[in-house]
Design a protein that fits this description.
Helix content: 40-55%
Structural class: mainly alpha
Number of strands: 5
Protein name: C-type cytochrome, methanol metabolism-related
Number of domains: 1
Distance between the termini: 11 Å
Mean pLDDT: 80
Largest sheet: 3 strands, antiparallel
Radius of gyration: 15 Å
GO molecular function: electron transfer activity; heme binding; metal ion binding
Pfam families: Cytochrome_CBB3
Order of helices and strands: HEEEHHHHEEHHH
Keywords: Heme, Iron, Metal-binding, Signal
Shape: globular
InterPro entries: C-typ_cyt_methanol_metab-rel, Cyt_c-like_dom, Cyt_c-like_dom_sf
Strand content: 5-15%
Number of helices: 8
């Protein structure tokens, strides 16, 4: 899928959320699609095997988070003095609200707040991996994944590779 088609999909997903779509508090895997895991409400989620092997999107999310997000939000989603812990946000926020903040940014400036989350909607290094970042943070928020690089991971599926290449324009 192309980057602009992906952005349309994100906007449509957000619109569905405002019309009453399900929240991201459900983490149980209902189905797998080409190496990606989803709840029964079609929300991306993580899959971790008994031996600690994480699904590819969770592993990719670790890599992408540490490439784009950790400078402000701290390593492993733990937060910093500069920005909040995103591992909590992935659990507490509705999935579509999380997507909206990443895509459009958020500004909270008043007498007791001065925080600005920049918009990443035009950054393919974030947008092409947004669900991966989300599932990684969700797994961290549930303490299903320890701090540090996951030691074992599923292989990247052909479907994930094709979608990634299409989003990045390859």
């Amino acid at each position: 899928m192309s980057f602009s088609f992906f952005r349309f999909g994100v906007a449509a997903a957000f619109l569905l959320a405002t019309l009453g779509a399900a929240h991201a508090d459900n983490i149980t895997v209902a189905y797998e699609d080409g190496g990606k895991y989803f709840t029964e409400d079609d929300i991306p989620t993580f899959q971790i095997d008994e031996d600690g092997t994480v699904d590819w999107p969770t592993y990719s999310g670790f890599r992408r988070y540490h490439s784009e997000c950790h400078v402000c939000h701290g390593p492993e989603g733990e937060g910093s003095s500069y920005a909040p812990a995103l591992k909590k946000s992935a659990i507490e926020m509705d999935y579509y609200a999380f997507v909206d903040v990443v895509v459009n940014g958020r500004k909270k400036v008043d007498a007791s707040h001065n925080s600005v989350m920049p918009a990443f909607g035009d950054n393919p290094n974030v947008m092409c991996y947004l669900n991966d970042i989300y599932v990684y943070l969700k797994a961290r928020g549930m303490d299903a994944v320890a701090r540090g690089r996951p030691r074992k991971k599923e292989p990247k599926s052909d479907q994930i590779r094709e979608e990634e290449n299409a989003c990045l324009g390859f």
